[in-house]
Amino acid sequence: DGGITQSPKYLFRKEGQNVTLSCEQNLNHDAMYWYRQDPGQGLRLIYYSQIVNDFQKGDIAEGYSVSREKKESFPLTVTSAQKNPTAFYLCASSMEDRGWNNEQFFGPGTRLTVL
Amino acid sequence: DAKTTQPTSMDCAEGRAANLPCNHSTISGNEYVYWYRQIHSQGPQYIIHGLKNNETNEMASLIITEDRKSSTLILPHATLRDTAVYYCIVRVWGGTSYGKLTFGQGTILTVHP
User: Fold this and answer.
1) Dist CA A47 CA A35 (whole Å)
2) How far apart are CA B34 and CA B19, in angstroms?
3) Test mutation, B96, B103, B105, B108, chain A, max A CBs within 10 A
4) Over 80: is that where the pLDDT of B58 sits?
């Protein structure tokens, strides 16, 4: 089945540790995105990538880093510089970023809790 | 992208039509109206989008007013599984904010038996 996978579903880390969240897609999509969602709030864009080896900061990129070495993969690292890392993290992909029919497909999310 | 305004919550009886309004009075000519929904603790799911004509697919219908300042998402026969947060999003096609979806707080739709 085609889709987006994120692992793990729940993740716990100690304060001050970096942590990397996985996002893989087998939809052959060019564009991929990372969003953060806090309780009762909408999604906010962290980073996005339109093509392999290229990515752009979103609205709240501080304290995060990404890489896009392969088309299928877009891992997100939450660094110790991120002041409030506890949140629900969602990865998404779309076929072609500038097309009019480019609906975004979302993964199941990773809930990160920093203790 | 234009800001949208949605009611915080709505109720609907199972089997009835659910009509979810969205106000986007500052929408520009090249901005589309998108609807997504999010079931608790899951990723958002795309529902439908449109520019100025009414649109229908297997999930829902989208009615956009002639002046494009508001729209309504219609779920024709709501089921309990339609209980979710519904987001109305206005975004530019081909503008500088490629791919960006600006999510507000959405409408919590609760479908009752």
Assistant:
1) 7
2) 15
3) B103
4) yes
